[in-house]
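Self-study notes.
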Amino acid sequence: MTSPKIRVKNLYKIFGPHPQRVLPAVRDQGIGKTELLENHRHVLGLQDISIDMQAGEISVIMGLSGSGKSTLIRHLNRLIEPTAGEILMDGEDVMQLGEESLRRLRRKSMSMVFQKFALLPHNTVLENAAMAPRIRGDAREVREAEARKWLDRVGLSGFEDRYPRQLSGGMQQRVGIARALTADTDIMLLDEAFSALDPLIRTDMQDLLLELQTELHKTIIFITHDLDEALKLADHLVILKDGAVVQQGAPQQIVMQPADPYIEAFVGDINRARVLRAGTIATEGNADGVVVGQVEWQDTLETVIRVAKGRTDATVMVVRDGQPAGKIETCELLSALIPYGSVESGPPETTAGR
């Protein structure tokens, strides 16, 4: 197995005047967020975070407000310094980088889209989008050509000479996304990048991100509080609560196998037909019913239902990369579409992930 692009190991962040003094109470005695604040007047931002983020994948960090997701992403480029722990990128310890090396990391290896846009108000849209190659010293015609390309991809062609104040909030956010793409870094950090967009534009930008990912194979760390967005985008999903990881893994498996009542409640109200993939519930063996058609491994269960045309005695075959990969008996769809009554009951045995 290849080493992860980014590895976070036993990361802690405590906000307050004496974080190192109270760290043993958290790390060794297990004091939680509420007790730390009440008894020690410190805030526990992150608690023993360990995550591997693979190259070329979208890792989504999600949780409710105050869960620590934005704090976590700002540790990756050391906008926030940790109280304890390690952050490794391609095996290199980011915590050991000096000022110049850290500046180089931010310029050439990692770009970021902030929730609050962070555009320069005195620069035009084109100048904002071309910021990273300008700082690197690229020729003006080169950086502007690259910026125009990505502005066009995010739907802002014709707005190059406008200023941020002349744009809507959603348009400003798209400038930020274009700026990150123009930077052409291996790693992209997106902190609630689509939160300011209208629903239809947000869906378009999610689709665009997935489309670009098939072309560019970036390592993307995406922060969101929206479960539907997380399930749509994530290759690897991490759910935080009160600064700690509650569950992480493939999003389909988190939906099918919630680790505790908190996660069970978190995923309980989603439309599972729109989220779960055929490959998640496909099983091996010969067809029991009449074969009515086939679907792709990544197709949703809505597609399976549509192919089955409402029949409960049918079999839909599942293919992957053009080869048979399993089957779905439509009479068994119900167990996948309705959440279990308890975590202990567990999901039906499937071939997912094999």
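Second protein, same conventions, sequence then structure:
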Amino acid sequence: MIRVPEDELEFRFYRAGGPGGQNVNKVATAVQMRFDARNSPSLTEAVKARLLKLAGSRATLDGVILINAVRFRTQERNRADAIERLQGLLDKAAVAPIYRVPTRPTRASKERRLDAKSKRSGLKSGRGKPSLD
């Protein structure tokens, strides 16, 4: 599990849209979190590459990941939500993919397959109408 120090994260608070009455027009509860993944000393190069690929459209061309959190009505919960979502991305990026090593079928398995095919073929050919010979 990779942990990113809090000083590498940058938070910007703004007023969220949507329902909420007068409160939504007064309080800046929505959070935009910025994390400079490309220049982060906490991550290895392989993790950085996987993280930026996983981030998709949330990553800028400079390698900065932007996460907007507007789900909750308080700054603290939106901030925690943004950190949690980044942690989820980091956890996925930390797992290196396992590559399958291609192998060839053995001679015995090829023979078993061909034997089964010929038996099945004989069974099916025996189902036809009898010949008039």
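Instructor comment on the second fold: The helical segments are 22-26, 45-55, 75-94, 107-125.
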